């Protein structure tokens, strides 16, 4: 199967909102981290990128957001080329990025962090702030608190809220659930889906592959900087190859399978005794 046929499997037809074609990108001269990487995001989609450690998932997001140089290939937004465009220009064109770490200004308050989100268009602040705190009520209640005094999950909220201040059409999320407790992870995934339902198309990189595929319309598996698999999220969760190579088997799945097997054996034994 060629990369191109894989990329479009399960994708809606029509003009992509954002498309990456045959990207080669890396940090050091002569060392490519992305190797002919492809990705398509259609309007309204929530697309997940999963894969092993070091596969280049974060690098792909950074390359899309102009933070890692693309050496070859092209990125388009609404069909217009945006390859290697600077991050501030991309924000202006409706692309937002939430980095995994160092994603808040710790000495600024929550409110000031959110002001930074609209520094290119400060007039937007008041109306956007009210809309965004509807999604993140905690941030509204604690607007005067310094971001540096927040927990990891709360900082993640601030970072996401700040990226939403410019009303992006595309949001790039780098491992938003990293380091959070299971409950906070769930909240993050639910919030991500809500933001998507509100009209923001999203690309999310996730270590928590199963959970990400549950909420995503489509997923991509990246391996060594290239596309290994792609398809509808739930289909990928049940694809034996993806499970074997990239999802592994959860202890709970093993326990459930063992319990089922024991129950079946006991059922057979009981059935045999009564005969
Ligand atoms: N700033 C950097 N300079 C040089 N190499 C880097 C830099 N950042 C990442 N890399 C290298 O790029 C490769 C891909 O890293 P990347 O963070 O994109 O992987 P990932 O798939 O997001 O991994 P993980 O799931 O572990 O976060 C790794 O080998 C990493 O060492």
TrEMBL record:
<keyword id="KW-0547">Nucleotide-binding</keyword>
<comment type="similarity">
    <text>Belongs to the ABC transporter superfamily.</text>
</comment>
<feature type="domain" description="ABC transporter">
    <location>
        <begin position="18"/>
        <end position="249"/>
    </location>
</feature>
<dbReference type="Pfam" id="PF00005">
    <property type="entry name" value="ABC_tran"/>
</dbReference>
<keyword id="KW-0813">Transport</keyword>
<keyword id="KW-0067">ATP-binding</keyword>
<protein>
    <submittedName>
        <fullName>ABC transporter ATP-binding protein</fullName>
    </submittedName>
</protein>
<dbReference type="InterPro" id="IPR027417">
    <property type="entry name" value="P-loop_NTPase"/>
</dbReference>
<keyword id="KW-0029">Amino-acid transport</keyword>
<dbReference type="InterPro" id="IPR003593">
    <property type="entry name" value="AAA+_ATPase"/>
</dbReference>
<dbReference type="GO" id="GO:0005524">
    <property type="term" value="F:ATP binding"/>
</dbReference>
<dbReference type="InterPro" id="IPR017871">
    <property type="entry name" value="ABC_transporter-like_CS"/>
</dbReference>
<dbReference type="InterPro" id="IPR003439">
    <property type="entry name" value="ABC_transporter-like_ATP-bd"/>
</dbReference>
<dbReference type="InterPro" id="IPR052156">
    <property type="entry name" value="BCAA_Transport_ATP-bd_LivF"/>
</dbReference>
